[in-house]
Amino acid sequence: MSHSRPVASLSRTNPASSALYELRVRVPEALAEEVGALMVETGAGGVVEEPADSGHSAVVTYGEERALADLARQVSASLGTLARVDLRPAALAIAGWKTAFLEHLQPVRISRTLRLVPLRDGVASPEPAAAPARKRSIDVFLEPVVAFGFGEHPTTRMAARAVEARCRAAPGARVLDVGTGTGVLAIVAVRAGAKEAVGVDIDGQAVAAAKANALRNGVEKRCRFSKTAVGRVAGEFDIVVANVDRNTLLQLAPSIAGRVAPAGSLFVTGVLPSDGADLKERYGALGLEVVARRREGDFLFLEMRRPRVKARVSSARRAPGARAQKGRKTIRKTRSR
Question: For strand 114-120 and strand 138-142, is the pairing parallel, antiparallel, or unpaired?
Fold first, then answer.
Protein backbone atom coordinates (compact mmCIF):
# COMPACT_ATOMS: atom_id res chain seq x y z
CA MET A 1 0.00 0.00 0.00
CA SER A 2 1.19 3.48 -0.78
CA HIS A 3 -0.72 6.66 -0.06
CA SER A 4 2.12 8.99 -1.00
CA ARG A 5 0.72 12.47 -1.53
CA PRO A 6 1.82 14.71 -4.41
CA VAL A 7 1.49 17.92 -2.44
CA ALA A 8 2.55 19.27 0.91
CA SER A 9 -0.27 19.70 3.38
CA LEU A 10 -0.75 23.39 4.02
CA SER A 11 -0.81 22.67 7.76
CA ARG A 12 2.70 21.25 7.78
CA THR A 13 5.79 23.21 8.70
CA ASN A 14 8.97 23.06 6.68
CA PRO A 15 10.59 19.66 7.31
CA ALA A 16 13.97 21.11 6.45
CA SER A 17 13.80 23.22 9.61
CA SER A 18 14.32 20.28 11.99
CA ALA A 19 15.30 16.62 12.25
CA LEU A 20 13.27 14.00 10.45
CA TYR A 21 10.88 11.92 12.59
CA GLU A 22 9.02 8.68 12.01
CA LEU A 23 5.40 8.03 13.02
CA ARG A 24 4.57 4.32 13.16
CA VAL A 25 0.95 3.24 13.72
CA ARG A 26 0.44 -0.48 14.43
CA VAL A 27 -3.11 -1.64 13.59
CA PRO A 28 -4.91 -4.87 12.68
CA GLU A 29 -3.95 -5.81 9.12
CA ALA A 30 -7.55 -5.54 7.90
CA LEU A 31 -7.65 -1.86 8.92
CA ALA A 32 -4.31 -0.80 7.43
CA GLU A 33 -5.71 0.55 4.14
CA GLU A 34 -8.38 2.59 5.91
CA VAL A 35 -5.91 3.92 8.49
CA GLY A 36 -3.49 4.92 5.73
CA ALA A 37 -6.25 6.91 4.02
CA LEU A 38 -7.16 8.51 7.37
CA MET A 39 -3.55 9.58 7.98
CA VAL A 40 -3.23 11.13 4.53
CA GLU A 41 -6.57 12.87 4.98
CA THR A 42 -5.42 14.19 8.37
CA GLY A 43 -2.22 15.67 6.95
CA ALA A 44 0.46 13.01 6.37
CA GLY A 45 2.66 13.76 3.38
CA GLY A 46 2.56 10.06 2.45
CA VAL A 47 2.33 6.66 4.14
CA VAL A 48 3.75 3.20 3.61
CA GLU A 49 2.38 -0.08 4.95
CA GLU A 50 4.88 -2.52 6.43
CA PRO A 51 4.30 -5.97 7.98
CA ALA A 52 4.33 -6.06 11.78
CA ASP A 53 3.64 -9.01 14.09
CA SER A 54 1.04 -11.66 13.35
CA GLY A 55 -2.24 -10.19 12.13
CA HIS A 56 -1.01 -6.60 12.28
CA SER A 57 0.53 -4.02 9.95
CA ALA A 58 2.47 -0.83 10.60
CA VAL A 59 1.39 2.30 8.73
CA VAL A 60 4.43 4.59 8.61
CA THR A 61 4.99 8.22 7.67
CA TYR A 62 7.90 10.65 8.03
CA GLY A 63 8.08 14.38 8.70
CA GLU A 64 8.82 17.16 11.15
CA GLU A 65 8.31 16.34 14.85
CA ARG A 66 5.67 18.94 15.71
CA ALA A 67 3.45 18.09 12.74
CA LEU A 68 3.71 14.35 13.39
CA ALA A 69 2.97 14.80 17.10
CA ASP A 70 -0.29 16.52 16.17
CA LEU A 71 -1.08 13.76 13.66
CA ALA A 72 -0.33 11.11 16.30
CA ARG A 73 -2.82 12.69 18.72
CA GLN A 74 -5.54 12.76 16.07
CA VAL A 75 -4.93 9.15 15.06
CA SER A 76 -4.99 8.03 18.70
CA ALA A 77 -8.23 9.91 19.32
CA SER A 78 -9.85 8.30 16.26
CA LEU A 79 -8.64 4.72 16.75
CA GLY A 80 -8.29 4.39 20.52
CA THR A 81 -7.02 0.97 21.60
CA LEU A 82 -7.07 -0.36 18.02
CA ALA A 83 -3.80 1.44 17.32
CA ARG A 84 -0.39 1.55 18.95
CA VAL A 85 1.22 4.85 18.03
CA ASP A 86 4.99 5.34 18.16
CA LEU A 87 6.73 8.64 17.31
CA ARG A 88 10.53 8.68 17.23
CA PRO A 89 13.50 10.17 15.36
CA ALA A 90 13.80 8.52 11.95
CA ALA A 91 16.50 5.89 11.62
CA LEU A 92 19.47 6.48 9.33
CA ALA A 93 17.98 3.76 7.17
CA ILE A 94 15.59 6.40 5.80
CA ALA A 95 18.23 7.09 3.16
CA GLY A 96 17.78 3.56 1.86
CA TRP A 97 14.01 3.95 1.87
CA LYS A 98 14.37 7.17 -0.17
CA THR A 99 16.57 5.41 -2.70
CA ALA A 100 14.05 2.60 -3.04
CA PHE A 101 11.25 5.13 -3.53
CA LEU A 102 13.10 6.84 -6.36
CA GLU A 103 14.24 3.61 -8.02
CA HIS A 104 10.76 2.17 -8.51
CA LEU A 105 9.31 5.26 -10.18
CA GLN A 106 8.28 5.04 -13.82
CA PRO A 107 6.37 7.44 -16.09
CA VAL A 108 2.76 7.83 -14.96
CA ARG A 109 0.06 7.97 -17.62
CA ILE A 110 -2.53 10.54 -16.49
CA SER A 111 -4.66 10.66 -19.64
CA ARG A 112 -4.38 9.66 -23.28
CA THR A 113 -2.24 12.74 -23.91
CA LEU A 114 -0.51 13.46 -20.58
CA ARG A 115 2.37 11.68 -18.83
CA LEU A 116 4.41 12.57 -15.76
CA VAL A 117 8.01 11.51 -16.34
CA PRO A 118 10.35 11.17 -13.33
CA LEU A 119 13.94 12.36 -13.54
CA ARG A 120 16.89 11.07 -11.56
CA ASP A 121 19.93 13.30 -11.68
CA GLY A 122 18.37 15.09 -14.63
CA VAL A 123 17.81 11.90 -16.66
CA ALA A 124 14.36 10.54 -17.48
CA SER A 125 13.48 7.21 -15.89
CA PRO A 126 13.16 4.38 -18.43
CA GLU A 127 9.82 2.73 -19.22
CA PRO A 128 9.37 -1.05 -19.30
CA ALA A 129 8.12 -0.68 -22.88
CA ALA A 130 8.05 2.46 -24.97
CA ALA A 131 4.55 3.68 -25.78
CA PRO A 132 3.83 5.37 -29.12
CA ALA A 133 3.54 9.15 -28.92
CA ARG A 134 0.04 10.54 -29.35
CA LYS A 135 -0.93 13.68 -31.18
CA ARG A 136 -0.74 16.73 -28.90
CA SER A 137 0.85 14.57 -26.19
CA ILE A 138 2.45 16.25 -23.18
CA ASP A 139 5.34 14.90 -21.12
CA VAL A 140 5.90 16.79 -17.87
CA PHE A 141 9.37 16.12 -16.43
CA LEU A 142 9.72 16.17 -12.64
CA GLU A 143 12.50 15.59 -10.15
CA PRO A 144 10.73 13.48 -7.47
CA VAL A 145 10.80 14.60 -3.84
CA VAL A 146 9.96 11.91 -1.28
CA ALA A 147 7.97 14.29 0.93
CA PHE A 148 5.59 15.21 -1.89
CA GLY A 149 5.26 12.00 -3.88
CA PHE A 150 5.43 12.02 -7.65
CA GLY A 151 2.05 11.62 -9.28
CA GLU A 152 1.09 8.06 -8.50
CA HIS A 153 -1.57 9.16 -6.03
CA PRO A 154 -5.22 9.13 -7.22
CA THR A 155 -5.75 12.76 -6.19
CA THR A 156 -2.93 13.91 -8.47
CA ARG A 157 -4.28 11.90 -11.38
CA MET A 158 -7.83 13.23 -10.99
CA ALA A 159 -6.73 16.84 -10.58
CA ALA A 160 -4.17 16.74 -13.41
CA ARG A 161 -6.68 15.13 -15.79
CA ALA A 162 -9.25 17.86 -15.04
CA VAL A 163 -6.72 20.69 -15.33
CA GLU A 164 -5.39 19.38 -18.64
CA ALA A 165 -8.86 18.98 -20.15
CA ARG A 166 -10.06 22.43 -19.06
CA CYS A 167 -6.90 24.23 -20.24
CA ARG A 168 -7.05 22.51 -23.61
CA ALA A 169 -10.71 23.51 -23.97
CA ALA A 170 -10.09 27.11 -22.83
CA PRO A 171 -6.54 28.13 -23.84
CA GLY A 172 -5.33 31.36 -22.30
CA ALA A 173 -6.82 30.66 -18.86
CA ARG A 174 -5.24 31.88 -15.65
CA VAL A 175 -4.73 29.09 -13.10
CA LEU A 176 -4.11 29.09 -9.33
CA ASP A 177 -2.71 25.93 -7.72
CA VAL A 178 -3.26 25.93 -3.95
CA GLY A 179 -0.84 23.63 -2.10
CA THR A 180 1.28 23.31 -5.23
CA GLY A 181 3.88 20.91 -3.83
CA THR A 182 6.44 20.31 -6.59
CA GLY A 183 4.36 22.31 -9.09
CA VAL A 184 2.84 19.37 -10.98
CA LEU A 185 -0.60 20.87 -11.61
CA ALA A 186 0.65 24.36 -12.43
CA ILE A 187 3.10 22.97 -14.99
CA VAL A 188 0.44 20.70 -16.51
CA ALA A 189 -1.86 23.74 -16.84
CA VAL A 190 0.68 25.81 -18.76
CA ARG A 191 1.77 22.91 -20.97
CA ALA A 192 -1.92 22.32 -21.82
CA GLY A 193 -2.53 25.92 -22.88
CA ALA A 194 -2.97 28.14 -19.81
CA LYS A 195 -1.68 31.69 -20.14
CA GLU A 196 -0.10 31.55 -16.71
CA ALA A 197 -0.19 29.52 -13.51
CA VAL A 198 0.42 30.67 -9.95
CA GLY A 199 1.33 28.06 -7.34
CA VAL A 200 1.36 28.68 -3.59
CA ASP A 201 2.54 26.49 -0.73
CA ILE A 202 3.68 27.28 2.81
CA ASP A 203 6.60 24.85 2.46
CA GLY A 204 9.76 26.51 1.18
CA GLN A 205 11.14 23.15 0.05
CA ALA A 206 8.06 22.67 -2.14
CA VAL A 207 8.36 26.13 -3.69
CA ALA A 208 12.04 25.55 -4.53
CA ALA A 209 11.23 22.17 -6.11
CA ALA A 210 8.35 23.68 -8.11
CA LYS A 211 10.56 26.45 -9.51
CA ALA A 212 13.20 23.90 -10.51
CA ASN A 213 10.59 21.70 -12.21
CA ALA A 214 9.17 24.66 -14.13
CA LEU A 215 12.67 25.40 -15.43
CA ARG A 216 13.12 21.76 -16.47
CA ASN A 217 9.94 21.98 -18.53
CA GLY A 218 10.73 25.35 -20.09
CA VAL A 219 7.71 27.09 -18.54
CA GLU A 220 9.43 29.17 -15.87
CA LYS A 221 8.27 32.43 -17.51
CA ARG A 222 4.59 31.45 -17.24
CA CYS A 223 4.70 29.76 -13.82
CA ARG A 224 5.12 31.68 -10.57
CA PHE A 225 5.59 29.93 -7.24
CA SER A 226 5.75 31.42 -3.75
CA LYS A 227 4.83 31.00 -0.09
CA THR A 228 2.15 33.70 -0.41
CA ALA A 229 -0.99 32.88 1.57
CA VAL A 230 -3.88 32.13 -0.77
CA GLY A 231 -5.94 34.95 0.75
CA ARG A 232 -3.24 37.42 -0.29
CA VAL A 233 -2.92 36.27 -3.89
CA ALA A 234 -3.99 39.13 -6.14
CA GLY A 235 -6.75 38.85 -8.71
CA GLU A 236 -9.20 36.18 -9.80
CA PHE A 237 -8.54 33.02 -11.80
CA ASP A 238 -10.42 31.07 -14.44
CA ILE A 239 -9.34 27.82 -12.77
CA VAL A 240 -8.43 27.25 -9.12
CA VAL A 241 -7.25 23.79 -8.08
CA ALA A 242 -6.64 22.70 -4.48
CA ASN A 243 -5.27 19.21 -3.80
CA VAL A 244 -4.99 19.51 -0.02
CA ASP A 245 -6.59 18.05 3.10
CA ARG A 246 -10.17 18.47 4.31
CA ASN A 247 -9.37 20.82 7.19
CA THR A 248 -7.43 23.16 4.92
CA LEU A 249 -10.23 23.21 2.36
CA LEU A 250 -12.77 24.12 5.02
CA GLN A 251 -10.64 26.64 6.91
CA LEU A 252 -9.44 28.48 3.81
CA ALA A 253 -12.74 28.26 1.95
CA PRO A 254 -13.41 32.04 1.85
CA SER A 255 -9.91 32.72 0.50
CA ILE A 256 -9.99 29.88 -2.03
CA ALA A 257 -13.52 30.67 -3.24
CA GLY A 258 -12.63 34.35 -3.44
CA ARG A 259 -9.99 33.63 -6.08
CA VAL A 260 -12.49 31.99 -8.49
CA ALA A 261 -13.56 34.38 -11.27
CA PRO A 262 -17.18 34.64 -12.49
CA ALA A 263 -17.91 31.56 -14.65
CA GLY A 264 -14.65 30.09 -13.30
CA SER A 265 -14.04 26.57 -11.99
CA LEU A 266 -12.74 25.22 -8.70
CA PHE A 267 -11.28 21.70 -8.56
CA VAL A 268 -10.84 20.23 -5.07
CA THR A 269 -9.48 16.85 -4.06
CA GLY A 270 -7.34 15.24 -1.38
CA VAL A 271 -10.45 14.31 0.60
CA LEU A 272 -12.59 11.27 1.31
CA PRO A 273 -16.07 10.69 -0.18
CA SER A 274 -17.60 11.28 3.26
CA ASP A 275 -16.29 14.87 3.13
CA GLY A 276 -18.32 15.74 0.04
CA ALA A 277 -21.42 17.02 1.83
CA ASP A 278 -19.44 19.37 4.11
CA LEU A 279 -17.49 20.82 1.19
CA LYS A 280 -20.62 21.26 -0.92
CA GLU A 281 -22.33 23.15 1.92
CA ARG A 282 -19.29 25.28 2.78
CA TYR A 283 -18.50 26.36 -0.76
CA GLY A 284 -22.16 26.60 -1.73
CA ALA A 285 -22.57 29.32 0.89
CA LEU A 286 -19.75 31.15 -0.89
CA GLY A 287 -21.46 31.09 -4.27
CA LEU A 288 -20.00 27.93 -5.82
CA GLU A 289 -22.07 25.04 -7.14
CA VAL A 290 -20.89 21.43 -7.43
CA VAL A 291 -21.24 20.42 -11.11
CA ALA A 292 -19.24 17.18 -11.18
CA ARG A 293 -18.16 14.54 -8.70
CA ARG A 294 -15.64 11.74 -9.30
CA ARG A 295 -14.03 9.08 -7.16
CA GLU A 296 -10.85 7.09 -7.57
CA GLY A 297 -9.96 4.55 -4.91
CA ASP A 298 -10.62 6.06 -1.49
CA PHE A 299 -10.54 9.67 -2.67
CA LEU A 300 -13.04 12.21 -3.94
CA PHE A 301 -12.74 14.91 -6.61
CA LEU A 302 -15.25 17.77 -6.87
CA GLU A 303 -15.63 20.30 -9.66
CA MET A 304 -17.41 23.49 -8.68
CA ARG A 305 -18.49 26.44 -10.78
CA ARG A 306 -19.17 30.09 -10.03
CA PRO A 307 -22.16 31.43 -11.98
CA ARG A 308 -21.53 34.10 -14.58
CA VAL A 309 -22.48 37.58 -13.34
CA LYS A 310 -25.46 38.94 -15.24
CA ALA A 311 -25.08 42.44 -16.58
CA ARG A 312 -27.34 45.00 -14.94
CA VAL A 313 -28.30 48.37 -16.38
CA SER A 314 -28.92 50.96 -13.69
CA SER A 315 -31.49 53.70 -14.05
CA ALA A 316 -28.68 56.24 -14.18
CA ARG A 317 -27.37 54.65 -17.38
CA ARG A 318 -30.68 54.62 -19.25
CA ALA A 319 -30.96 56.46 -22.52
CA PRO A 320 -31.38 60.25 -22.20
CA GLY A 321 -34.96 61.19 -21.65
CA ALA A 322 -36.00 57.67 -20.69
CA ARG A 323 -36.82 58.65 -17.10
CA ALA A 324 -38.77 61.74 -18.17
CA GLN A 325 -40.85 59.68 -20.57
CA LYS A 326 -41.73 57.08 -17.94
CA GLY A 327 -45.48 57.15 -17.31
CA ARG A 328 -46.15 59.69 -20.06
CA LYS A 329 -49.16 58.84 -22.14
CA THR A 330 -48.48 58.96 -25.83
CA ILE A 331 -51.29 60.39 -27.97
CA ARG A 332 -51.20 59.75 -31.64
CA LYS A 333 -53.22 61.86 -33.96
CA THR A 334 -55.00 59.86 -36.63
CA ARG A 335 -54.28 61.17 -40.08
CA SER A 336 -57.39 61.92 -42.06
CA ARG A 337 -57.51 60.56 -45.54
Answer: parallel
> Same domain, yes or no, for 67 and 119?
no
Q: What is the pLDDT of residues 274-314, one digit of tens each?
A: 999 999 999 999 999 999 999 998 899 999 999 987 655 45
- 88 and 170 part of one domain: no
60 in a structural domain? yes
- Would you say residue 335 has pLDDT above 50? no
For the stretch 248-271, pLDDT in tens is 999 999 999 999 999 999 999 989
Q: Which long-range contacts (CB under 8 A, 24 or more apart) does 209-212 make?
A: 209/143, 209/145, 209/148, 209/181, 209/182, 209/183, 210/180, 210/181, 210/182, 210/183, 210/186, 211/183, 212/143
pLDDT per position as a tens digit, 145-171? 665 666 668 898 999 999 999 999 999
- Residue 187: phi and psi, rounded to 5, are -70, -45
Cα→Cα distances 109→35, 116, 138, Å: 27, 7, 10
Q: What residues make up the domain containing 171?
A: 110-305
Number of domains, the chain: 2
Same domain, 295 and 245: yes
Do 162 and 272 share a structural domain? yes
Distance of CA 119 to the CA centre of its chain: 21
CB 108 within 8 A of CB 116: yes
CA distance 319 to 134: 56
Higher pLDDT, residue 46 or 52: 52
**Mean pLDDT over the full length of the chain:** 81
To the nearest 10 degrees (0 to 180), the angle between helices 184-191 and 204-216 is 30
Are residues 179 and 213 located together in one domain of the fold?
yes
Count CB-CB contacts under 10 A for residue 285.
11
Whether residue 266 sits in one domain with residue 118? yes
pLDDT at 17: 39
